[in-house]
User: What shape does this take?
Amino acid sequence: MNNQARISKVKIATCSLAGCFGCHTSLLDIDERLFDLLGMVEFDRSPFTDIKHCGPCDIGIVEGGVSNAENARVLREFRDNCKVLVAIGPCAITGNVPALRNNIDLWDCFQEVYLYDPGTEGNQIPNDPELPLPFDKVYPIYEVVKVDYFLNGCPPSPDAIWNFLTDLIEGRKPEIDYKLLRYD
Amino acid sequence: MPPENFSNIEQQVASLCEAHDCEPHRLLQILIQVQEIYRFIPPEAITSIARHLNLPRVSVEGAAGFYSFLSLEPAGNYRVLFSDNVTDQMVGNQELMRQFCSKLWLEPGKVSEDRLVSAAFTSCTGMCDHGPAALVNGQPLTNLTSDRIDLIADLILGKSPVSNWPSALFEVNDNIRKTGMLLDKPFVSGNAIGAVLARGPDATLAEIKLSRLRGRGGAGYATAEKWTGCRNAPGSMRYIVCNADEGEPGTFKDRVLLNSYADLVFEGMTVGARLLGCAKGLLYLRGEYLFLLEKLEGILKRRREDGLLGHNIFGETGFDFDIEIHVGAGAYICGEESALIESLEGKRGRPRNRPPYPATHGYLDQPTVVNNVETFACAAIIAFRGGKWFGKIGTWQSSGSKILSISGDCARPGIYEYPFGTSVQEILDDCGVDEAYAVQVGGPSGVLISWKELDRRISFEDLPTAGAFTIFKRGRDILQAVRNYADFFAHESCGFCTPCRVGTQLQKKIVDKIANGHGTASDLEELKHLGHLMKTMSHCGLGHTAPNPVLDMLEKFPGAYEQKLRNLSFEPAFDLDAALETARRITGRDDPAAHLP
Assistant: This one.
């Protein structure tokens, strides 16, 4: 019986790209309902599990926009492996705060940070292949892959996330109560 | 701008404000004059205007920032705005802009370092029969050619005042090709007013009802009903407003009506005033038609001298009515009647919640009738010749005639007047079109019809139109035209409601994506979904109609976009690897991790 239940658990993967982990924190804020959630789902790749690559999943939840090549690779991996992909929070949906850099030329930005900023030593622009290479701009994730659902709020409230996830897990079309759709 | 011109800013603004009685409703007119003097609105002027009009500074700045002809940054002694309607694009406005910019070492949208000149694109300037067109410091430049661009650039480099430029550059013709009941015979001023005074207001309103006249601005509301509503509404003052903010791309018939039939229009307003008991009329002239202002003011002056305006009109004791002209400053949204009223009150042109409608709560919250230029011309004719005569022409639901502004791929662009019910094919035959592929009837907010629908008829029951009629021949890229329209709506959305502000931007992005060869089937679905959202959720007509050209293309012109689609379920909106190029250059990296296939 126990085994049976485990096999039918819904598999979820989550990640934070150019975001602040606030949406993940809000997910943890569902408090004791976490136990109910863990009864229904199993986490694949996620900051909660520290699994590094995403396997076949039912739901992929993406926080944050696409700021660098690594973000794009992770996002593609999610899209390739997840049946349903959810953009959570405005950074994933529009680019939001990280996209404030979109009005600044990348070269100006690098010079300011690595060459001119007081306290920098050696004055060199980092070029190690280990470092993710930034895009000219921060992009919302729907411009890079097909996104199935958008859950707004900065971050979405724990109740909004809970309602959204339980709808999805139980096979309903997610509908968020108007009062739960807000930005504070 | 040399600094010495700023020393007397306070003095100049003070005298400007006083000339307008420090009336907050005159704010837009004051700002337009400040822009004329300094070629932009200096921050000191905003502070000073706010003090004189007793308005919060932010309201003044908000209004100044709203209108695209007003500039909060120096825009050069010569500000050149190239008209970017689809008809201008057909005749090469992009190439002329490039030539102009390279000749003057300019970057589009930016002012030159010596602050001499700037160049940018603007929405349709109502010169579709004179394209490519542009505006220099508000004056229309027409029939531009490569030679003319060279000449203009030389005049600017020689710092020649615009008033000294050769008049051929500014030539605007009426191009009236076909006349009907409105444009046929020269109208004798006073005839309609005389008829109203002889017949009486009630009987004249009955004549208008009998004529079944409907508004010519596009929506087609019954004029008699609108006027009766205003007449019966409680209020201390009543206003009559003529909407000459002809912003719909492809429309220029009001330009011609005001240039050559202004008496007919003013007479129609005066007829309305008598029927409704108005003492004041306002004509909202779009900023692009500033060149008509002097002429129109002269006609108003003459009508006052002839006893057709002012006190005791036509010798009738107590019949007092006068007309004031307000100038707009480049905002399509102000063609929406409640946004127009906001703009008349000196505010940003933001549409109001309706109801209440202007007929009960309009200008200064008083009962107000807002009608199109052509509607007033019709009202004057009906007052003179009677409703029965008018109603005999056209169809039962659409009586009378419609003036069309025809442009695009045809031998004879210009003004054509047709009885309602005329088929598109007949019109195409008249203006010289061999093989029409598509016609945009009523401008981008109207209907895009294909070559299969040429038997459709101009009328409120089939193809309603405010007057635009843009023809595309076979071989024209409909996707490019729709892209132009999507740009237009994204630029002109007033930003007040989210479905329109965001929807028009997303629509533009997706159309661009398809045009750039990155579109997929899911993008088409997204366009339909967006269109539905905008149509149902937007605050005003702009948002309701903004998806029209896109949805019409999806339905009627699959050939325009299908071959551009990728055979995938999804494709990114941009080239990911190319978006890494800047960082590769900065860091000097070329390792595998620095690329995205």
Summary: The two ends of chain A are 42 Å apart (CA to CA). Chain A has one domain: 7-98+136-174. DSSP finds seven helices and seven strands in chain A.
